[in-house]
Design goal:
The chain contains 23 helices and 33 strands. The protein is an alpha/beta fold. It folds into 6 domains: 105 residues, GIY-YIG endonuclease (3-Layer(aba) Sandwich); 65 residues, no CATH class; 182 residues, P-loop containing nucleotide triphosphate hydrolases (Rossmann fold, 3-Layer(aba) Sandwich); 182 residues, 3-Layer(aba) Sandwich (Rossmann fold), CATH 3.40.50; 45 residues, no CATH class; 90 residues, Ribosomal protein S10 (Alpha-Beta Plaits). Helix 5 crosses helix 7 and helix 22 packs across helix 23. The structure holds adenosine-5'-diphosphate and zinc ion (2 copies).
């Protein structure tokens, strides 16, 4: 007799499938891949997903357990969506249960029904429209901000959306309701056809749109290579419009940091269609609603960060990945997938085009263009003919410095401020100073849990470890020799801010880093102050370097480029080049061209020379040639086996045992290590790694498949935490 055996992904870190028998008396019609089951698992009850239905099992059927119940009448994921997950599981050699969990909203993982809950939305009334245009809200800025939002979004906005864009929006919208200017409703309103009009495209934009449009309905991968402000987003918007008109959906992936209210507003104003947003600040309910709206096709455009690559779509037509070089697309823990790479696979499987956009494409993507896998679309100029900023190095050798700022830089800032323009300083280091040292005996403030220095946060009077979060009070004297002569070595944003206050008294400074923007809404306030001109001096970490437009900024300074020039990580130069170009992109517009100054002790460094003289594209060509000569990715394929344990020897021993198992299998791959991680001790654990490198993707895959089964069984593995990272982007 033919048995029905369900192959299930169970939420467990084990790298295997589990077979179950269907619950008694189940209608076979509802047993399909993509439905959830409640299952007995050890002594627990878990929710798993059926990924395949078979007639046999390696486990003897008398020993197979029965599932308790089927949770869905219809599959949650369609066959193509499951296929992507299975592909990812296979490629990354990861536990199937964790792969499937990544793709499901929390409530579904918990076994809640896949039913949307209708949420109340607020809409602006006709009276509200009139009041707004008559300027009656001029003295209630919060209410006006909310009213303007509601005006732009005729379908209304729910509490979550309002709060995401305007902090403390709910009391304000309540006041609008009391005046009769807004209403709260659960009815699904018709979306107004009216939207902000699209500008006519320039020739390069038009060509990009035409080429992608011609590819709709079939598979193709495009790299939209265009400097900041060249109109990439405009290309996305017009393409989305066309795809939606075909009755298809668009998935837009963006880095976490650029999913800002400004971006959403721009999409919402321009696209008069239901839009679903998936980001980490959503409540579980909101996330499920957005996910279901994508799945049913109710949402025509889905914007999300990394994990949205797995969101089910009723009729996918196009996938867009903005800032495709951004490292936040790679998940760095658990299931370590790369959302950009999976998006390309997904588009290929679904036979739809995928569009990757960046001003500083990843070297992998540049390489893929060179190999003919991606078609390059280029937007060489800024919209409106704005000149690209001039990039210059500022030689720090023998130059007097004040808290890391060279006098010529201070003089330039002065000039730009006097002309009523703004200046932006980039320093990728928060806190006051990265090191506290005793001037008497040389004692250094170090973290007791990590191989790292504690960062001095002077205003909070604390020493903080930026790696494990350890916090301690600022010592008044040296713990070793008792001297009170403790000095701060090096600069962080807090210290540079003080220096700027001293040099430019009375000038408003916007410091933007994780410390200064912790309070909800404070980032928005700072950005408002920059745009209104209240704070013409901008200082910040990469929070400032990405995603924002500051049209008044005409001077950009990279305070310290040397940090990235001499790293042991072979990707450091690519990252530095991208960061410099991204920061530079914040500056200038048509009438006011920008200047970029890079402070360095190594002005002759080829990377800086190249960026200053010929730009990112030439840098990328050169950097790829170096990668090829050194046989590094994308010319070879890596995987990293990491281990950590409370005892240093445990991690090393496990990796050594794993390497020994690998040697006999490793004819087409190289095993390098094990070696201690660059920062060996972190959060009290010792970390080590074993690097695997292959000339062919296929030989890496075959090796991993055979090797991991043996590694899984290693007794030494039980004493460590270990993980595999396929295509690692950080070797630590
Ligand atoms: P990017 O995404 O490449 O940084 P954007 O699409 O944001 O560039 O465009 C930069 C600015 O130029 C935006 O304010 C946008 O509205 C405007 N813009 C883009 N394309 C055009 C166009 N064809 N005509 C007029 N303005 C445009
Ligand atoms: Zn001392
Ligand atoms: Zn620490």
């Amino acid at each position: 007799m033919n048995k029905t055996i369900l192959r299930v992904a169970v939420p467990s870190p084990l790298r295997r499938w589990f077979d179950y028998l269907p619950p008694k008396d189940t209608d076979p019609a509802i047993l399909q891949p993509g439905v959830r089951l409640r299952l007995p698992f050890g002594r627990r009850t878990l929710v798993g997903m059926v990924c395949a239905i078979r007639s046999d099992s390696p486990v003897d059927s008398s020993r197979l357990k029965r599932a308790l119940s089927v949770l869905d009448q219809q599959p949650l994921l369609s066959a193509p969506e499951l296929r992507l997950l299975l592909w990812a599981q296979h490629y990354y050699h990861h536990a199937p249960g964790e792969v499937v969990s990544t793709a499901l909203p929390t409530l579904l993982r918990q076994g809640k029904p896949a039913i949307p809950q209708r949420q109340a939305v607020w809409q602006l009334t006709a009276a509200g429209q009139t009041a707004l245009s008559a300027g009656q809200l001029a003295r209630a800025p919060k209410q006006r901000a909310v009213a303007e939002l509601l005006q732009a979004q005729a379908a209304g906005l729910n509490a979550e959306q309002l709060r995401f864009i305007v902090p403390k929006a709910l009391p304000a919208v309540q006041q609008l309701v009391e005046k009769g200017w807004a209403i709260r409703t659960t009815a699904r309103a018709e979306i107004a056809a009216k939207s902000a009009t699209a500008p006519p495209l320039n020739a390069a934009q038009q060509q990009a749109v035409d080429q992608v449009q011609a590819a709709l309905g079939g598979g193709a991968a495009f790299l939209l290579d265009g400097v900041t402000g060249s109109g990439k987003t405009e290309v996305y918007l017009q393409l989305i419009d066309r795809v939606v008109q075909r009755g298809e959906q668009v998935l837009v992936l963006v880095p976490e940091i650029s999913l800002t209210p400004q971006l959403l507003q721009r999409f919402e104003c321009r696209l008069p269609v239901p839009l679903a947003v998936l980001h980490s600040a959503l409540s579980a309910r909101e996330r499920l609603n957005a996910w279901l709206a994508a799945r049913s096709g109710a949402a025509r455009v889905v914007i999300g960060t990394r994990s949205a690559v797995f969101v089910p779509l009723h009729r996918p037509g196009l996938i867009i990945i903005d800032e495709e070089h951004d490292t936040s697309f790679k998940q760095q823990e658990g299931f370590r997938y790369h959302a950009r790479d999976l998006a390309v696979v997904r588009a290929q499987q679904a036979d739809i085009p995928v569009l990757l956009g960046s001003a500083t494409p990843a070297l992998e993507s540049v390489h893929n263009v060179a190999c003919g896998r991606y078609q390059r679309l280029s937007l060489p100029e800024r919209v409106g003919g704005a000149q690209p900023p001039r990039v210059q190095t500022l030689d720090l050798r023998r130059t007097p410095l004040d808290e890391g700022l060279a006098l010529p830089l201070l003089a330039q800032i002065e000039q730009h401020l006097q002309r009523g323009e703004q200046a932006l300083l980039f320093l990728n280091r928060r806190g006051y100073s990265p090191t506290l040292i005793c001037h008497e005996c040389g004692w250094l403030g170090s973290c007791q849990h990590c191989d790292a220095r504690l960062t001095l946060h002077l205003r909070r009077r604390r020493l903080i470890c930026h790696h494990c979060g350890h916090v301690q009070n600022l010592p008044l004297h040296c713990p070793d020799c008792g001297s009170v002569d403790l000095r701060a070595l090096g600069e962080g944003t807090e210290r540079v801010e003080q220096a700027l206050q001293r040099h430019f008294p009375g000038v408003g400074i916007a410091r933007i880093d994780r410390d200064s923007t912790q309070r909800r809404g404070s980032l928005q306030q700072l950005l408002d102050d920059i745009h209104s001109g209240v704070r013409p001096l901008l200082l910040g970490t990469q929070m400032l370097a990405k995603g924002h437009h500051f049209p008044q900024v005409t001077l950009v300074a990279v305070v310290n480029a040397d940090q990235g020039l001499f790293s042991t990580d072979y990707r450091a130069s690519e990252r530095l080049a991208q960061l410099i170009v991204q920061v530079a992109g914040r500056a200038g517009r048509a009438e006011k061209p920008g200047v970029v100054l890079i402070q360095t002790h190594h002005p002759q460094h080829p990377l800086l020379q190249q960026l200053a003289q010929s730009g990112y594209a030439d840098f990328a060509v050169e950097a790829l040639a170096e990668r090829q000569a050194a046989q590094l990715p994308p010319y070879t394929y890596q995987a990293l086996l990491r281990a950590e344990a409370e005892e240093a020897s445990a991690a090393q021993n496990f990796l050594a045992a794993a390497a020994a198992l690998g040697q006999p299998l490793a004819d087409e791959v190289e095993l390098l290590g094990p070696v201690p991680a660059p920062m060996e001790r972190r959060a009290g654990r010792y970390r080590a790694q074993l690097l695997l490198q292959a000339r062919q993707r296929r030989s890496r895959h075959t090796f991993l498949q055979r090797w991991l089964d043996q590694v899984d069984a290693l007794p030494a593995g039980r004493r460590v935490r270990w993980s595999l990272d396929v295509d690692p982007i950080d070797l630590f």
